[in-house]
Amino acid sequence: MTDAPLEEQLLHRVENSVAWITLNRPESGNAITPDVRNRIIDLLDEANGSLAVRAVVITAIGQKHFCTGADLRANRPAMVQEVEGAPERPVGTAARMIRSGIQRLTSAILDCDKPVLCALNGTAAGGGAQIAIACDLIVAAENARIIEVFVRRGLIPDGGGCYMLPRRIGLQKAKELVFFGDDLGAVEAERIGLVNKVVPAEELEATAKEWAERLASGPTTTIGIAKRLLNRSLDVDRASAFAEEALGVELVGHTEDQQEGVASFVERRPTEFKGW
Fold it and tell me: Does the residue 203 lie in any domain?
């Protein structure tokens, strides 16, 4: 599948205001190539600017793997020795690759203006685990697993794992997952708060569709601002958080959806949000 057209390796459709981004490399554990990674980032950026998209789902084909991280067998540009005698991989090369690669992808998910739902169909390992954890909500199949596999290879988590995990499940549990690298099953992941809901594999798509379309029918701008405030909440002091909250309330107050929400309450009728 590596040589297959990009649009076959990564499926994309918009349905009922939900953008579905689906990894389709099951024979490679749905590992991602640089081209697939960059395409996901582009699609998230497109979702940001599209009034037709009000929620995003990231999932994968198959029931075995969601994503096993970067495809280490994928063709990568050869490094060019720009200066004679310079080392092939000078200090800073790995850091630059991480910043421009997996960190850029997880940041695109975290910073997406629209709510991003992960439909976790199978194993999410390494960078694949970080992709799932970066999503706002996770609905998982019963057979799904999340594995911070890095320690098994003598590596530290990349893609923001050491930043996101303590914020999702607390410092002590994050250390356990990172230090041991054990498989975390879907049921246990739900128990510790890393996964929102676990369902039988055959119900995953329908449940993800229900949740995503519910999000897509909500006040999109309001949800986006609330997402930003929640993501920032553990990084700023109380005064800064309160100031940003006040600004968010001001911005939301000028949306048509806020006016519709109030009007529908007063008029005792169903609310019909437009997304702006």
Answer: yes
CA atoms within 13 A on the CB side of 253: 6
The token pair that represents 210 in the structure block? 């229900």
Residue-range definition of the domain harbouring residue 155: 6-77+88-216
**Span 144-167, pLDDT tens digits:** 999 999 999 999 999 999 999 999
* C-alpha to C-alpha distance for 169 and 85, rounded to whole angstroms: 47
Locate 190 and state its tokens: 């739900």
CATH number at residue 182: 3.90.226.10
Q: How many Å is the maximal CA-CA distance in the chain?
A: 76
**82: Cβ–Cβ under 8 A, 6 or more apart, which residues?**
none
Q: How much is the pTM?
A: 0.92
Asked whether residue 275 is domain-assigned, the answer is no
- Give one DSSP letter per residue of 174-209, joined into a string: HHHHHHH--EEEHHHHHHTTS-SEEE-GGGHHHHHH
Strand pairing partners for 123? 65, 145
Here the CATH number for the domain that contains residue 240 is 1.10.12
